[in-house]
Design a protein that fits this description.
The structure is a single chain. Helices cover 47% and strands 10% of the residues. By secondary structure, the protein is mainly α. Strand 2 and strand 3 form a beta hairpin. It is globular.
């Protein structure tokens, strides 16, 4: 997505890259809720920048989403119905449904920060 926002700083760029190669935050939310096995968490994906009103909050305020949770692209031979049944709704199903299922933007950002810190310490 093209933006008029300034490019990320070195620290913001490092966060974005670390996030994109890690686990999907929506998948992890399902694990925490006991709805998905850890082995079924997708690793690697898109960096979802969050908004306040209709403005992006900045490069620091984002988290990783797999292509199912971000863009509603099914994996493998799964149908949309199978993906939705197993991995829940996509952001493309509506922001309200997405956040009711996985948590607020701020909760997902905090989860991403925590995961990045754990992965960096390992």
């Amino acid at each position: 997505m093209w933006s008029k926002a300034p490019p990320p700083t070195a620290a913001e760029g490092a966060r974005i890259e670390a996030s994109k190669v890690g686990p999907c935050m929506a998948c992890l939310s399902l694990v925490v809720q006991g709805l998905l096995d850890i082995e079924q968490v997708f690793v690697g994906g898109d960096y979802q920048h969050t908004k306040s009103g209709n403005s992006r909050r900045g490069h620091w305020f984002g988290f990783c989403l797999c292509v199912w949770h971000h863009r509603r692209h099914p994996f493998g031979n799964n149908t949309f119905a199978q993906m939705r049944e197993k991995w829940g709704p996509s952001l493309m199903d509506g922001s309200r449904t997405f956040h009711e299922t996985y948590g607020t933007d701020d909760e997902l950002i905090a989860q991403q920060t925590y995961i990045n810190e754990i992965r960096q310490a390992a």
